[in-house]
Amino acid sequence: MKIGKDGLYEDLKRRILTMELDPDTDLDEAGLCEQYGLSRTPVRETFRRLAGEGYVEIRENRGTRVSPMSHASLRQFFLVAPMVYAAIGRLAVQNFKPRQLGELRDTQERFRAATEARDPMAMVIENNRFHEIIGEMSWNAYLRPSLGRLLIDHARIGHTFFRPRDAEMERRLRLSVEHHDGFITAIAGHDEETVVDLVFDHWELSRENMELFVAPQGLKADALVEVGRGSERTS
Fold first, then answer.
1. In this structure, what are the phi and psi dihedrals at residue 219, rounded to the nearest 5 degrees?
2. What phi, psi does 59 have (nearest 5°)?
3. What is the rounded distance in angstroms from the CA atom of residue 235 to the CA atom of residue 91?
């Protein structure tokens, strides 16, 4: 385990993105101090940094919690995400640096390896990093914070994508790897329109899996409704 303030920051980010810490979970400040060998000041500084990036919320006199996901916030996510991703993609093509393209390729290889190993935690982290780098390529101080916040919820509500349960989900996962390769080729070739087309293809690929997370099948409440209807029919 990484020790110190940087270790705490990286570990909390990872645990939030991979849903090890569920939305709305209260963070135990005293427990984290003990676990990481830190005083309260660096732990609180880490909380403030994470709050500024959208990972947690700090509530006055009520402690810090993992950022929740409400119906309203999810609706905003689905409305805004494709527009932000497309704008980021265009700017990435226009402004990327060669070293960033190299980092994107390295991240893609780690994502590919995680996919082949069926390591969902690593897939979440490397996929998130892949899209973070495209954001960094944009060099836009206004859009990058928006992208960062979107990627947090994208990782959380899309985590089912990296745990395929049938052949169709397996096909989509393989296609997502191909899309990443396409992004790299198009950015390297300064092909702005192809990048934007890939943004929407990539979004559509994971959207249905996200909807499964938002409205999962087989909810107990659904069963209760059916039981109630059965009672009405027999009464």
1. -65, 145
2. -110, 130
3. 64
Which residue from 70, 72, 55 is spatially nearest to 18, judged by alpha carbons?
Answer: 55
Neighbours of 188 (CB within 10 A): 14
Residue 31 has pLDDT above 90, yes or no: yes
Angle between helices 5-17 and 120-138 (to 10 degrees): 110
Which residue carries 């909380």 as its tokens? 47
Strand 63-66 relative to strand 56-59, pairing: antiparallel
Contact predicate 135/85, CB 8 Å: no
For 144-164, how does the pLDDT look when each residue is reduced to its tens digit (9 = 90+)? Answer: 999 999 999 999 988 888 988
DSSP 3-state assignment of 21? coil
The residue type found at 11 is D
Query: Is the Cα torsion angle 142, 145, 149, 152 positive or negative in sign?
Result: positive
Q: Which one, of 39, 150, 43, 144, lies nearest residue 89 by Cα?
A: 144
What tokens does 5 get?
């303030």
Lowest pLDDT segment from 40-44, 69-73, 99-103: 69-73
Tens of pLDDT, residues 180-189:
999 999 999 9
Gap between the Cα atoms of 190 and 22, Å rounded: 39
